Amino acid sequence: MNAARRWVRECRSLCVLTGAGVSAESGVPTFRGPEGLWKRRDPMSLATPEAFAEDPKEVWEWYQWRRRKIRGCVPNPGHSALAAVEREKPDFLLVTQNVDGLHRAAGSRRLAEIHGDIWVVRCTGCGRERTERDDFETLPPRCGSCGGLLRPGVVWFGEPLPPEASEAAVRMLTRCEVLIVAGTSAVVAPASGYAAVAKRRGARVIEVNPDETPVTGICDATFRGKSGELLPVLLG
Ligand code: OAD
Fold first, then answer.
1. Does ligand 1 have an atom closer than 6 angstroms to the CB of 95?
2. Which runs of consecutive H residues, i.e. helices, occur in the chain?
């Protein structure tokens, strides 16, 4: 741990990639693993534009259920440690696949939410977006301006990433000295390839995850455990 702590402390440019695991200790369910959301549901039956076109009510019921679950969750010490290290680094970017908003709630600001934000709703008709934290009484919800169907402001399988967040992430991978990969199974592209991109350029790659993942083999250091416990030590 000491060498990795030194790499983090001494670097000027730090990038962190997070996934659902960093919110697990806050009570947000992960997608994969024994308790994962996808254990019971096939992702393709819910998180795709095709599923939404076919049955928007069913897709919305799932999102409303997740929104309810996440609404009661608060950031854990892993989120807080990431917000604190950001304040110390001249060059920093937190790239997250999470849509739960807990990094922002913890105080992170240099943040690229590459899979969107579950609290944003967007009209499929007029394209208007707004933040809405409350439940919708009727599902699927409709746009107050044009009557079009509203959709969650998240990225579904087969959709492009939000360009601004994705470009910021890719630019950071071309210059960071250290990349920490925490709480992601590293199987969903393009984030699954980020560690290899940084590594090829000579960045140090550090993984924090209770389990082995496809990126473990290229990491300079791996820490097996919970991010809520290990990130405060690694970044402290
Ligand atoms: P996954 O659910 O695939 O993976 C969660 C990872 O977190 C696993 O590798 C676990 O071992 C690890 N983990 C569990 N508890 C942890 C803890 N306390 N501390 C640290 N790690 C822990 O989640 P993601 O990799 O984020 O995309 O999934 C990527 C994408 O797949 C999601 O953004 C979502 C999903 O389909 C879309 O919906 C587009």
1. no
2. 2-10, 21-24, 49-54, 56-71, 77-86, 102-106, 163-173, 194-200, 227-235
Centre of ligand 1 to C-alpha 32, Å, is 6
State yes or no: pLDDT of 36 exceeds 80: no
Q: For residue 8, what is the domain's CATH number?
A: 3.40.50.1220
Instruction: Based on the fold, state whether residues 180 and 214 are members of the same structural domain.
Output: yes
3-state secondary structure of 89: coil
pTM of the predicted structure, to 2 decimals: 0.97
Given the residues 66, 103, 104, 115, the one annotated as active site: 115
115 is catalytic: yes
> Are both 102 and 62 inside the same structural domain?
no
* pLDDT computed for residue 201 by the predictor: 96
Residues 86-137: tens digit of each pLDDT: 999 999 999 999 999 999 999 999 999 999 999 999 999 999 999 999 999 9
The alpha carbon of 190 and the centre of ligand 1 are apart by a number of angstroms equal to: 14
Question: In terms of domains, do 215 and 196 share one?
Answer: yes
Whether 111 and 178 map to the same domain: the answer is: yes
